[in-house]
Design goal:
The protein is globular, with a radius of gyration of 15 Å. About 25% of the residues are buried. Helix content is about 60%, strand content about 0%. It has a single domain, classed as Cytochrome c-like domain (Cytochrome Bc1 Complex, Chain D, domain 2), CATH 1.10.760. By secondary structure, it is mostly helical. It contains 6 helices and no strands.
Length: about 100
């Protein structure tokens, strides 16, 4: 019984938000390379580019993975696909951590 409870707790921890945690400083550096040109400082949003600061990590990771896979999901999809395709899983986690931390 104790093993079952530990297994459930471990699964919960594995599937929880911190599982996607990345390096905020590395995410900030990567964001400055490309993302800020359209999404603005700290992800505040500019013109037709949405505000992405403070979004949930799981949402940001999902969106970047979707764009990286080449799936169109919005009016700026072609640009986002081009920007997301070279990103590694670690870079996506770092970007998500940085943007989530911007409140």
């Amino acid at each position: 019984m104790k093993g079952l409870i530990l297994g459930i707790v471990g699964l919960f921890l594995l599937l929880s938000e911190p599982a996607f945690s990345g390096d905020i400083k590395a995410g900030e550096a990567r964001y400055a390379q490309n993302c800020g040109n359209c999404h603005g400082p700290g992800g505040m949003g500019l013109a037709s580019y949405p505000k992405i600061k403070g979004k949930e990590i799981s949402y940001l990771v999902d969106r970047l993975n979707t764009y990286r896979a080449g799936t169109k999901i919005g009016p700026n999809s072609d640009l986002m696909i081009m920007m997301a395709q070279p990103l590694s899983d670690v870079e996506i986690a770092n970007l998500a951590a940085y943007l989530n931390a911007q409140k």
